[in-house]
Amino acid sequence: MPNQPDLPMLRDKLRAFAEARDWDQFHSPKNLxxxxxxxxAELMEHFQWLTEAQSAELPSDDKQAVGEELADIxxxxxxxxxxxGIDLREAALLKLEKNALKYPAELVRGSAxxxxxxxKNDN
Length: 123
Hints:
Blueprint: H1 7-20, H2 29-45, H3 52-56, H4 60-84, H5 88-102, H6 105-108
């Protein structure tokens, strides 16, 4: 996607941001994982009492607020992966491959069932 910041650039900016504020001492994997979940809960608050249709058609002010929550989630996720030495892009690509095997398109198209509800693919 054009103009999308790459993960190493975000990682480096987050490292510098934390270092300039002496916050690295607080950025343990435990603390970052909990902060990530707090931000995810804040995201959910924006959708809590909406219908499906309303959730898909947010007013611009709400959409901006949701964007800020998504940014917080992304930043904590990148910071956590950095602290654990996990290449987030590589992990995501590997997970997509794994999910493609668990959810073959010809078997699951149009269904939201969990992979264990489908017949085993012994290929």
